[in-house]
Amino acid sequence: MSKPHVPPAPPATLVIFGAMGDLTRRLLVPALVNMTRLGLVGDGLQVLGVGIDPGDDATLRQALDDFKPETGGEGAAEKDAAWTRLRDRVHYLEGDFTQDAVYDALKARLTGNAAFYLAVPPRFFGDIVDKLAEHGLTTETPTAFRRIAIEKPFGHDLTSAQALNQRILARIGEPQIYRLDHFLGKETVQNIMTARFANMMIERVWNADCIAHVQITAAETVDVGTRGKFYDSTGALRDMVPNHLFQLLAMVAMEPPASFDAEAIRNEKGKVLKAVRAWSPAKAKRNGVRGVYTAGQIGDRVVPGYTESPDIAPDTRTETFAALKLMVDTWRWAGVPFYLRTGKAMTCRDTEIVITFKPVPFASFHRANAERLPPNRLIIQIQPDEGLSMDLLIKRPGLEVDTVPIALDFRYADRFDIGHLTGYESLIYDMFMGDQTLFQRADAIEAGWAAVQPFLDLWAAEGTPDPYVAGSLGPAAADALLERDGHSWHKLAIAGHSEP
Ligand code: BG6
Fold first, then answer.
1. Ligand 1 centroid distance, CA of 239 (Å)
2. Are residues 349 and 269 in the same domain?
3. CATH code of the domain covering residue 77
4. Most buried among 140, 264, 360, 439, using CB within 10 Å?
5. Pocket flag, ligand 1, residue 223 (CB < 6 Å)
């Protein structure tokens, strides 16, 4: 990958709470290594990991050695060199972040710019922010920023998200808060805005006059595995919809911002999420489908049923699949359904957005009528196999006037190398640079929860998820949700593709 044309971030200390955890090893450190290699950070970057496990700098460095980006593949030697450069600037602070001693130690060590990354279970978010503020660690000066990155899940429903926002905002200002949604670090997600707002021929037809419906799918082959403790109290809806899928929905449905600065974009995204109709309980029942996978096979992997997996409550009613029909109540989207679905242990890994256009009003072709012509579709393939394709009709060659569907297909991999980044590089860089465009503001987070709250309430109160076999496309009720409107789900493109 060529070096980006942006200046390196200013010198800063990245304090990671939860330094020995999975996120740090799997994503944060690999991202920092890539940033070092690409010149997005210079030698002024210090990493200070905080963790409860006994150890010193050498312990943390060694622990991270195992998880540095694997050798082999693009830029392996460069990555190794970057880790060697970064390694000496990685330090460890042993301590319990619920206790004051850690913050006293931080106070003694930190000068200048600092960003605190909360890679810890969500129940600690509020406590850590309180303690940082009480110890004066969040106080900014004209020469030193103090920022806090907060991972998802931000709350587990509307009330808890509001309470967490209130608690944090009582301590620090919104410009200091970087609420992460890692989907926003994905190149193809960022491309949605470019595709829409840099192309006249797309944006002009991007409305209820021309679009029949929108589908957003995030299908995964991974099952719950060892994440039972977290997942069983979360479920597919909370885990994926108000955050990841709503980020995609907001990008698709937002109005063009007046400028590309962070607040202008966040205003438009916030407006869309606030316009998602909050269903009544009866409508939520009609417009939401939940599923749970039973034992099955995905490729050559035999998957036990969800209820037979470790740490799942014997009387669990948690869903591993959710499909929703939502309406966005704005002029642009009046009457256009947005269908969202996500699930674990499905047949393939595929995150995609499908825009289906309305039929032409009249077809003057021999033996054809407009209703029977397949619709134009724009498919934004988020992952894997990132790309963009458009289904159009052309004349079938021959003497007869007949139509045939074709696809104009663009794959990123054919033109660019985007496969070797974690997605966290741009998020961490932007946080150091003070650019909040790709981070969620309090109002948008709350609007997301408000939109799914009717489903959360309904599903907590009654019923159980419909079973689907692991390796399938989810329960039949999810198909019925669209069929009743005369539509069907887009056939997932990469059937059989398995997650690593
Ligand atoms: C996480 C969810 O936020 O996103 C996981 O907690 C999910 O359950 C993951 O698997 C999906 O992210 P990606 O980038 O693999 O599509």
1. 8
2. yes
3. 3.40.50.720
4. 439
5. no
Cβ distance 385 to 418 under 8 Å? no
Angle subtended at Cα 351 by Cα 349 and Cα 355, rounded to the nearest 5 degrees: 140
Q: Strand pairing of 377-383 and 321-327?
A: unpaired
Instruction: Band the pLDDT of 421: cuts 50, 70, 90.
Output: confident
Q: How many domains does the chain have?
A: 2
Q: Is 479 in contact with 341 (CB distance < 8 Å)?
A: no
Indicate if 141 and 248 belong to the same structural domain: no
Distance 339 CA to ligand 1 centre (A): 19
Q: 239: Cβ below 6 Å to ligand 1? A: yes
Residue 164 shares a structural domain with residue 207? no
CATH number at residue 309: 3.30.360.10
Q: Is the CB of 391 under 6 A from ligand 1?
A: no
Residue 429, domain member (yes or no): no
Is 244 in the active site?
A: yes
Answer yes or no: is 27 within a domain.
Answer: yes
Nearest atom in ligand 1 to 222's CA: 10
Place 76 in a pLDDT band, splitting at 50, 70 and 90: confident
Q: Give every CB contact of residue 116 below 8 A, 6+ residues apart in sequence.
A: 15, 17, 128, 132, 137, 146, 147, 148, 149
What's the rounded mean pLDDT across residues 198-222? 96
Q: Is the whole-model pTM more than 0.90? A: yes
Mutation to probe ligand 1, out of 240, 341, 352, 424 (largest number of atoms < 8 A from CB): 240
> Do 39 and 105 fall within a single domain?
yes
CA-wise closest residue to 230 among 125, 318, 346: 318
pLDDT digits (tens, 9 = 90+) for 476-492: 999 999 999 999 999 98
